[in-house]
Specification:
Helix content: under 10%
Distance between the termini: 96 Å
Radius of gyration: 46 Å
Strand content: over 45%
Largest sheet: 6 strands, mixed
Number of helices: 3
Length: 807
């Protein structure tokens, strides 16, 4: 029972020491690869009869016949690779081959003869092996002839045993222990130990393959079980996560791992216990193990089926209360709830974790707070192995019982009465009208809101956070009789946002009833055009980004939130050109006035914008002070600043700090002018200064830690003049928690006995993040309280604040 394979690694001619010739001198060339048909190398040398012989060269795919002394011409030629380089193979006949030169004949009958004779070695004969079936760890006997020339044995799937690990070896017999990794398959004998070769890819060796396959045994299984039952091989067993699985059979010492497989997931378990006799295997069922097939994996990689696993899931589940209110806890009772790893609810995103606790006996699970985005339906109790159990639940819905008045004017105030109205986030009056964001009273029994001007008679729609809605009873809405804006500008479009100090024009109705207009509590001028029904409103120069607009009529009033571009950015023209800087021959001496940067507000930033037209590829600009000295642009040592400008651009910006501006002013009287520019390759068209005034004013900075309801009184008892603050000002406290990840709160009080401030300031604000800013709008009532009662005291627990600002 023998098959012989010969393997020749790719060699260069210099290593083989071979040269080849052809019958035609024109074809004779010793270059390794070239045009035409050429032979560079062949081998192995010597070769076994019945083994493979390889030829390397150029265009050897054109060889049609090969002559070996003592044999018929060989035409069965395997083309491994055609072209340049190329490779072909033939099998040397077992009978008849003699020592001698080989002749390769092309398809055009040209001949190439080798310059070395082909020789042969005595073959290793693989007669038999026994036993035919064997277990890993047992000894296999291989018989034949010239087995003393065998240096390595290879079992199926590339498991190699070098000769140093043979049990015994003679010319006629080899004994070897079958390794645990061996699989059923044919056996190969090697005349070279590849485990000792640095690079097997360039080595010459022969392989002798057995005719028959060796049957390598694997672990055998008779039954398997859990505390809930047992089954024969390939049967079904039910088990709960953490319970012990026991497999009974033979040779479990050969097991590498336990594998659970399913259509979309798999779990490999490497931790298990086998008995000394190898007849039992036990392990705790992992939480990740999915329902489905369950196999043992031998060290050889062979999988041995065991059976089908069904994991225990929660059952007999009942929820209470039913219905449950969003934000309240939900209790689920049943069996085996301790296997739950996560919970899913309709309309709740996967990123939002639903927190829960489970009793140790697995009979009760409590969802701490039903998310307000959840919609009723089936929640899913999800196990760690992906298996889920659906449990139906219902939600409390708000109910509208009536209104404080069955008829209300558009723009008027309405109180909606009912139960669980704290679930409502938005109210809509009629299809296509504006939605009003609302907040119910703490008891959830009423909502007070301003009816939109485009509201329609009908049943108002109340929408909850989860997107579902309910309807209230019929409500009669009358058209407003006071002046109101019929269409507000779309402030998401910057072109519609008015600048502070400019005007805002809006269409109105009942303009004849209008008496006065207020922006952020300050009365402003207005013009009403009766023919066009357009109202033009003056926006104060100190208006903030978020401002309030109030229209006061003889028979009512209405407020709107508007967006304003604050007067925070001012552009000053410092010089008008053109000024040609050709060849460093021109400069701005005296052209930028000495007082050009006077009256800059404290805290403002200044950026010079130099607008230019390039006249050459090399554009350079040098800045100097009024005394032709170097400018201190780095707030340190003054040094020369030569800037290389972009020849494809039209503007260069240069920031100036307050320190630099002061230094420039000090030098401006030397030669005349605030700053001198000269250079080359450009024409200066204009120089501007963009002055940005910060809107957020810092009234305190430092480091103050509040722990255990201690208090900071830096802004109390004269620490700040609160009478200068205007209603609508936003106060921000920048904080970080002393102990991250734990609860903390801020409480704002007035100085007198640390009493509470009026609404909207709450007595206690729980800090949602480990760091951030707490923001509160100061109303007229709050400001008056601070002025009358000693200013601001900041108290609370577990936070440090570093800055307080007003905007």
């Amino acid at each position: 029972m023998k098959k012989i394979k010969n393997i020749l690694a790719l060699l260069v001619v210099a290593l083989m020491g071979l040269s080849l010739t052809a019958c035609s001198e024109d074809d004779l060339d010793t270059n390794q690869y070239q045009q035409g048909v050429h032979l560079n190398v062949y081998g192995p040398q010597p070769v076994m009869r019945g083994g493979q012989l390889r030829f390397l060269g150029s265009n050897l795919d054109q060889i049609s016949r090969i002559q070996i002394p003592g044999c018929d011409e060989i035409t069965n030629i395997e083309v491994v690779k055609a072209g340049i380089p190329s490779e072909i193979k033939i099998t040397v006949p077992k009978d008849g081959p003699l020592v001698g030169y080989l002749t390769l004949i092309t398809k055009t009958d040209e001949e190439i003869k080798t310059k070395t004779q082909l020789t042969y070695e005595e073959p290793i004969v693989f007669t038999s092996f026994s036993p035919a079936s064997i277990m890993p760890g047992e000894t296999l006997t291989i018989e034949g002839d010239y087995l003393n020339l065998v240096h390595m044995i290879e079992f199926a799937d590339g498991v190699q045993i070098p000769e140093k690990d043979f049990v015994s070896q003679t010319r006629y017999k080899i004994e070897v222990v079958v390794p645990e990794e061996a699989q059923t398959g044919k056996i190969n004998l090697f005349d070279l130990d590849l485990t000792t070769v640095e690079d097997p890819s360039v080595a010459l060796y022969n392989i002798i393959e057995s005719e028959n396959a060796l049957n390598v045994g694997t672990p055998t299984i008779t039954k398997w079980s859990s505390p809930r039952g047992e089954a024969e091989l390939t049967g079904n067993v039910t088990a709960k996560m953490g319970e012990t699985i026991t497999v009974t059979g033979e040779h479990f010492g050969l097991v590498k791992s336990v594998m659970f497989t399913a259509q979309d997931r798999g779990t490999e378990l490497l931790v298990f216990t086998t008995s000394e006799d190898g007849k039992t295997l036990t392990f705790a069922l992992p939480e990740e193990a999915p329902d489905g097939d369950f196999v043992l994996v031998a060290r050889s990689g062979v999988e041995i089926p065991v059976g089908t696993l069904t994991t225990v899931a929660p059952s007999e589940c009942v929820v209470s209360p039913s219905p449950v209110k969003a934000g309240a806890s939900l209790v689920i009772t049943g069996k085996d709830l301790d296997v739950v790893n996560s919970i899913e609810m309709p309309n709740v995103s996967a990123e939002e974790e639903i927190k829960f606790i489970v009793n140790p006996d697995g009979t009760k699970l409590i969802i701490e707070s039903v998310p307000e985005t959840a919609q009723e339906g089936n929640l899913v109790l999800r196990m760690k192995n992906g298996k889920g159990v659906e449990v139906p639940f219902t939600l409390v819905k708000p109910v509208v019982t009536g209104y404080d008045n069955s008829t209300v004017s558009a723009g008027g105030v309405l109180t909606i009465k009912g139960t669980d109205l704290d679930l409502v986030k938005k109210v809509q009056f009629g299809e296509g009208t504006d939605e009003v964001e609302v907040k119910a009273a703490e008891d959830g029994k009423s909502i007070t809101l301003t009816v939109p001007m485009n509201a329609k008679t009908g049943k108002p729609t109340l929408t909850m956070a989860n997107g579902t809605s309910v309807e209230g009873p019929e409500l009669n809405i009358e058209e407003a009789v006071f002046c109101y804006i019929t269409e507000m500008p779309d402030f998401s479009n910057k072109e519609n946002i008015p600048e502070a100090g400019s005007t805002l024009t809006v269409p109105v109705k009942n303009g004849d009833k209008l008496e006065s207009i207020f922006v952020n509590g300050k009365k402003v001028n207005h013009v009403y055009a009766e023919k066009t029904s357009l109202l033009t409103i003056s926006i104060p120069t100190n208006a903030k980004k978020k401002s309030t607009l109030k229209l006061v009529s003889s028979n009512g009033e209405i407020e709107y939130d508007i967006t304003v571009i604050p007067a925070g950015s001012i552009t000053r023209t410092l010089m008008n050109g053109p000024l040609d800087l050709a060849g460093w021959g021109a400069n701005t001496q005296g052209l930028i006035a000495q007082d050009a940067l006077d009256n800059i507000p404290d805290g403002a930033s200044v950026v010079l914008k130099i607008k230019y037209t390039p006249t050459a590829d090399n554009v350079q600009l040098k800045g100097q002070d009024g005394g032709w000295g170097n400018i201190d642009l780095d707030n340190g040592e003054a040094k020369e600043h030569v800037y290389k400008l972009d020849a494809n651009a039209k503007e260069f910006t240069l920031p100036l700090s307050a320190t630099v501006i002061a230094a420039l002013k000090a030098k401006s009287t030397d030669w005349g002018g605030l700053i001198i520019f000269n250079g080359t390759g450009a024409i200066i068209n204009k120089i501007e200064a963009e002055i940005t005034i910060p809107q957020e004013k810092t009234i305190w900075s430092g480091l103050s830690s509040i722990v255990g309801w201690s208090g900071d009184q830096s802004l109390a008892w004269g620490g700040y003049d609160w009478s200068t603050v205007k209603p609508g000002t936003i106060m921000r406290i920048y904080y970080s928690k002393v102990t991250a990840g734990t609860w903390g709160c801020v409480s704002l009080r007035h100085g007198q006995n640390w009493g509470n401030l009026p609404s909207p300031v709450t007595a206690q604000y729980d800090l949602p993040d480990d760091s951030g800013k707490y923001e509160v709008t100061l109303t007229e009532d709050v400001i008056n309280d601070l002025v009358a009662n000693g200013g601001l005291v900041i108290t609370g627990d577990n936070f440090t604040f570093t800055k307080i600002t007003l905007e």
